[in-house]
Design goal:
InterPro entries: UCP029215. This is DUF2213 domain-containing protein. This protein is an alpha+beta fold and about 375 residues long. It is built from nine helices and 16 strands. The protein has three domains: about 190 residues, no CATH class; about 60 residues; about 70 residues, no CATH class. The strands form three sheets. Strands 1, 2, 3, 4, 5, 6, 7, 8, 9, 10, 13 and 14 form a twelve-stranded mixed beta sheet that branches. The protein has a two-stranded antiparallel sheet with strand order 11-12. α5 runs antiparallel to α6, α7 runs parallel beside α8 and α8 crosses α9.
Length: about 375
């Protein structure tokens, strides 16, 4: 069997007045659907959680009376492990209830849970507010379609082992139920699970598993960046040739040569600045900035928003046009676009339909524990 780690937001938290324990009611931990998985070899495969499997009696029962942990447990070498009787004493920070059930209206598997550990309770109140489900499953290579979406294989014999409380490295949550996404990386039981190979262009790189989805989303931005570098190099080469052809001629042509050199120098500086954007920790910062922007634009544009292949400026313009399609942004500077986007973002945050102030609309009734006693954005497995 393969081991999986799925993510979802904690919702509907209350505190027991006598013990101080945190209780989470009716938590959605799984749903049926077809989800893309980033496999260990860097390829992506569509896997199906069919209703008769994920909502079947065996899987539902396996969610009862299971350990709650602070992050997914690891052994001394950094490999993620499952919880059992020999390590439960040190790893258990709470437990699920014995009321796991299927919500037929939403097609989700839900269960109550109690968190008893004081340190973890403090972390939750400080913003650590998502759940990641650790479970084992058999992957059967059979193609088909579910709700109009094609899949390459089916998850069978799904058995939940534990529920980890985690804090993901980006603002907002793109799915109100289950984080079915590139985070769900296929790894064989017993092998290291902290890194993942991701295909970027013609190369394969190794990244932290939790960052795999971010890197893949940034791939389109990297491609645009490479094209820009190639264009700048071509322009510099052309201007240098013009300078060489004009040198030694009249004063006027000498002046033109100087101008060509100045333009080439300016382009060379732009080239170096562009390259620096993806050197050292600037790459991580670029990933974080793009992910944050996507989270800001999507609530404005709606579920149809697709960031793939779009620059930051193009995403901001799409958001602006959604709010005011009559505005002419032709020839406007990046600073102008950014300032305009910031203004409509603030307006959008203060006038979200159906929620108030600190609330952010989600795909359904699920809410974020950032506002532990209020409600909570959209995403996969």
């Amino acid at each position: 069997m393969l081991t999986r780690f799925d993510t979802a937001p904690i919702t509907q938290l209350t505190t027991d007045p006598e013990t101080g324990f945190i209780q989470a009611k009716n938590v959605p931990i799984a749903r049926s659907g077809v989800f893309p998985y980033l496999k260990g070899d860097g390829s992506i495969e569509m896997e199906a959680k069919l209703p008769n499997e994920i909502l079947g009696d065996s899987t539902v029962t396996s969610a009862n009376n299971k350990p709650v942990t602070d992050d997914h447990p690891e052994n001394g070498t950094g490999q993620r492990i499952l919880v059992n009787k020999s390590n439960a004493k040190s790893l258990m920070k709470g437990f699920t209830a014995s009321n796991a059930h299927v919500d037929q209206d939403t097609g989700t598997l839900r269960v109550d849970m109690t968190i008893t550990d004081d340190d973890l309770i403090k972390k939750i109140h400080a913003g650590k507010h998502e759940l990641s489900i650790g479970f084992q499953t058999d992957i059967v290579p059979v193609k088909g379609q579910y709700n109009g979406v094609g899949y390459d294989s089916v998850q069978k014999n799904i058995q939940i082992n534990h529920v980890a409380v985690v804090k993901r490295g980006r603002a907002g949550h793109t799915v109100s139920l289950l984080g079915d996404s590139a985070e769900m990386v296929e790894k064989e039981k017993g092998k290291a699970m902290e890194t993942t190979k991701v295909r970027i262009g013609d190369s394969t790189i190794t990244v932290a598993t939790d960052d795999a989805d971010k890197v893949m989303k940034l791939d389109a931005d990297n491609s645009a960046n490479a094209k820009k570098i190639a264009t700048l190099n071509a322009q510099i080469k052309e201007l240098t040739a013009q300078r060489d052809a004009l040198q030694g001629k009249s004063d006027e042509t000498s002046k033109n040569a100087d101008e060509a050199q100045a333009k080439a120098d300016a382009l060379d500086k732009e080239l170096q600045d562009t390259k620096k954007k993806y050197e050292g920790d600037a790459f991580d910062k670029a990933i974080e900035a793009r992910m944050n922007l996507i989270d800001e634009v999507k609530p404005i544009v709606g579920d149809s928003f697709n960031p793939k292949g779009k620059t930051e400026k193009e995403m901001k313009i799409e958001a602006i046009k959604t709010v005011d399609d009559s505005i002419d942004l032709g020839g406007k500077s990046d600073d102008y676009i950014s300032a305009y986007f910031d203004s409509i973002k603030k307006r959008k945050n203060s006038t979200v339909v159906g929620v108030t102030g600190s609330e952010i609309a989600g795909d359904n009734a699920d809410t974020s524990a950032t506002s532990l006693h209020a409600s909570y954005y959209n995403r996969k497995k």
